[in-house]
Amino acid sequence: MKQEIHLEENWKYIEHLKKAEAIYPRFLNLELTSRCNLRCIMCPKTVGFHTHKPDNEISDIVLEKIVGQVLQGIYHINLMGFGEPLLARQKLFALLKECKRLFITLNMITNGHLLTAEVCRKLIDLKIYNLNVSLDAATAETYKKIRNSDYAKVIKNLRSLKKIKEEMGSNLPTVDLSFVGMVDNIAELPEFIKTAHDLGARKVVLQALSEVPETLVHEKDIFIHNRELGFENYSKALKIASDLGVVLELFPLDQFETARGENLVEHKIPEQEGHKLIKDCIEPWNAVFISSEGGVSPCCGLPAMGNLNSADFNDIWFGRDMTELREKIKTEEIPPACIYCRGTGWRRPIIAGEEIIAGLNDNQLGMDWYPLDSENGIPLRWSGKKATYFIKASKYPAYIEVETLTPGATLKVNMDDKEVFVSKMAVGTARDRFYIKPTLMFDINNVTSEIIKVVLETDTVKKPAEKSGLDGRLLGFKFFSHVNIRTLTFENNWELVISFNRTFNKLNRLEGQIFVDSALRQGKSDIPSLFVHMVKTQRFIPKFIGRFLPDGVLRITKRMISGSYKIKPLQNIENGSRLEQLQLSWQKALPKGQYNIYAGLWRPESGKRLRVNNPGNSAISRERVFIGTVVLE
């Protein structure tokens, strides 16, 4: 069996990408109109480059089809394209009413010139979720050069929006500011962060310039041709953003990494360390773009693969052209337009591992999960009714931690199309919501394939709208981890069965799971105590966002723990083992960074640690074993 397996080369993963019957788009990118009141120097419209009608407005027929055929699975709409949405405001307001009814969040990309006080009040009343204002400059002079319009007017409108939100007692819409990075404006990015903070913006997005050769900004990007200049000013802005509490986001995330941009001009797939990179794009599975003409494609950079004026949505979404794109986009047959696209970055192939932890290495999850979420600092991934992941075969039994949203829901687990677990979960309570928290354990020793396809399915999904009022997702269950359970035999036949599956960002609390064989609790009076060590590691962070972190060691033993330490029965285990729900806490916050977690057994009266009889690759010594990693951020 190969030591390193790339998921993109495995037939099970390839089939999952190709067969999207169960995957329906959750994001709608919609162009209400292709009309615009500005002519910016970097816009293809300015030089007459159009992929569809330049001054069109979406028809009532297409809007009706969108409401009737598309919105059934959508929970977020992004108004975008080649036009200014507020030039079609009546259709915008009608769409917002539907979104309010269906609990769909809506973001609008706008240049901000038409954000009058009346419009702002209407948008707030209809609960628009977010405004992304394209500004691109911190001075009137640069704004005039790029957008040939009145900078002061937009700033005045944004200040007015902030005041009206306060008057109406609303925290919505949130405001993001967009900054397309070019030689002409990148020196103003640090000052732009201060402007964003002053206007109450939560985030600044530094967007890579998508060039059309005929425009006035040809080769003025900071993504390929002027990366050092771009990176220098980005670094300055990042520090200011951190100090002011403004998020500075890169779009795409990898625009300042090497080996990304150079080959894109020639439409070649970039390489890194001998590996051809993979386009980090999920649009063909999770998102759909509908133009003002009714054209349907996975994104605005590809030609329409059907039109709602002449076909139903499902016939297009599951049609030949869309299916063919899903087959090719993760391979060397990727379309040239996708290679050149600046909207998504590149990544190395997914190396299949034996364990998955949400927020840490969850790229082994399939295309049928919602984006990364968190709850009280705990990373998680929500699913709908059914979701898939892929795991490298292991000699160890596995433990899955999930929670379902609906009390009494049934959960099924299939491995390589074989049902291994079905249960109607008991209901537990956490805070003010009911959860079902099953502990699943199954043995995969007899599996012969290199990669195992795991499908989790529940019989009940629901929208959690009664909690947020805006969340239109159809939710089934939360996924936290799939981790192996390792058995360590110590001297005198003591056994410790260990699994650790938590990554936390709280600096004064750590939680994990440790399985302890029932023999430790039955009929023996000289039971050894558990000890846990946290060792801070040197975690490499790219130089543009961090530095090497120093070494350090923190030692915690059971008698020093100030938090709780509970034992709960482990479901589905015949030998009567017990689950140690380990919760450690300490008085002072730990330094941020990455920590390795080790555990072992010891005798407090003598201070002697028990030796491990079968350390294998998991133990760093004969007295303790590595059980996982925690990142404190």
Shape by Cα distribution:
globular
How many runs of DSSP E, i.e. beta strands?
35
Indicate the percent of residues in helices: 10-25%
- Tell me the β content: 25-35%
Low-confidence regions: 426-439, 501-525, 538-587, 616-620
The biggest sheet amounts to: 9 strands, mixed
Amino-to-carboxy terminus distance: 36 Å
Give the averaged pLDDT, no decimals.
Answer: 77
Number of helices, where a helix is a run of at least 4 consecutive DSSP H or I residues: 13
Give the helix/strand class. alpha+beta
Strand order of the largest sheet: 7-6-5-4-3-2-1-11-12
Oligomer: single chain
Integer-rounded radius of gyration = 27 Å
Tell me about this structure.
With 633 residues, this protein is an alpha+beta fold. It has 13 helices and 35 strands. Strands 7-6-5-4-3-2-1-11-12 form a 9-stranded mixed β-sheet. Strands 14, 15, 16, 18, 23 and 25 form a 6-stranded antiparallel β-sheet that branches. The protein has a 5-stranded antiparallel β-sheet with strand order 26-27-28-32-31, with no helix packed on it. The longest helix is centred in the N-terminal third of the chain and has 18 residues, at 151-168. 36% of the residues are buried.
Task: For the structure shown, list the relevant keywords.
single chain, 633 residues, alpha+beta, nine-stranded mixed β-sheet, six-stranded antiparallel β-sheet, 13 helices, 35 strands
